[in-house]
Amino acid sequence: MENSTQESLLKSEHSVTYDSFYPIYALAFSSSAPNHHHHRLALGSFIEEYNNRVDVVSFDEDTLNIKAQPNLFFSHPYPPTKLVLRRPPASSGDYLRPWEVRESSIDAVSVLNNRKTIEFCATLTSFDWNEVEPRRIGTPSIDTTCTIWDIERGAVETQLIAHDKEVYDIAWGESGVFASVSADGSVRIFDLRDEEHSTIIYENPQPDTPLLRLAWNKQDLRHMATILKDCNKVVVLDIRQPTMPVVELERHRASVNAIAWAPQSCRDLPTVAGPNGIDPMPMYSAGSEINELQWSATLPDWIGIAFSNEVQLLRV
CB atoms < 10 A from the CB of 91, how many? Predict the structure, then answer.
């Protein structure tokens, strides 16, 4: 695959568009303070073959320009299912891969592998970094487990059989507390002080309908939100009231693909669905299916979305 050398071409006061050479699925903002007003973003390709890639680009908030960094890319086996751009950055897919971004290169740190057999590699569908205990990363897998990694030691802290079917997402709440969603249609909370038990706080009343994504409100840990496969509904939960949703938001016509709580507010929950749905931006149209939505604390006035081979930053 050829290197990215292009810059953002379409921009206005309220949006900036970056065109890539390949379809984009994963997107992450840097959690570090910007360097001379330049914020970094990581973009992960979605190519239906083994060879994929991750690029790191820069966003200048003053000039509203997204620019590729020709040397800041690396080959990634299979499409990355998620990216996180903090210290160290990491990606998930076949394995959990921490890496390091230097001034003119990206270097692999390690490949974290917890598979039990040589023949089979269970895909990691996502991961989440524990902000309270930064050495911990949690990874959900299609083999029904969640694995908690000690990233400093590069070793497994614990592995739990979390659900009856594939686990699709994970989110940390407190230092030793995380939640996960699964193809079995449930949201479960785990406390590492008692690994033998979990609390089911929601079960999808629609049989055989997986829950795909989970977002825990970092400004108000009482609340989390999840989305269902092929459904226009967002389910908001209060962990103090298990089984009963606080509200079910149905503001889209198409299926919801991604959700993200605002980093500076406990009340804002943007959602994306299809090509034309960003709540709360009813007049927005991307032109093709929106795959990803991110909102970073380092850029609280902007949200990022990915669709087709484009990344857009939208001022909110």
Answer: 27
Report the distance separating Cα 43 and Cα 268, nearest Å: 25
Nearest residue to 290 (alpha-carbon basis) of 312, 316, 261: 312
**Count of CB atoms within 10 A of residue 285's CB?**
11
pLDDT per position as a tens digit, 99-115:
999 888 999 899 998 77
Gap between the Cα atoms of 75 and 240, Å rounded: 44
Q: Is the peptide bond before 80 cis (omega within 30 degrees of 0)?
A: no
Q: CA–CA separation, 145 vs 201, rounded Å?
A: 18
pLDDT tens, 240-266?
Answer: 999 899 999 999 989 999 999 999 999
Q: Is 194 exposed, middle or buried (0-12, 13-18, 19+ CB in 10 A)?
A: exposed
- pTM score, two decimals? 0.94
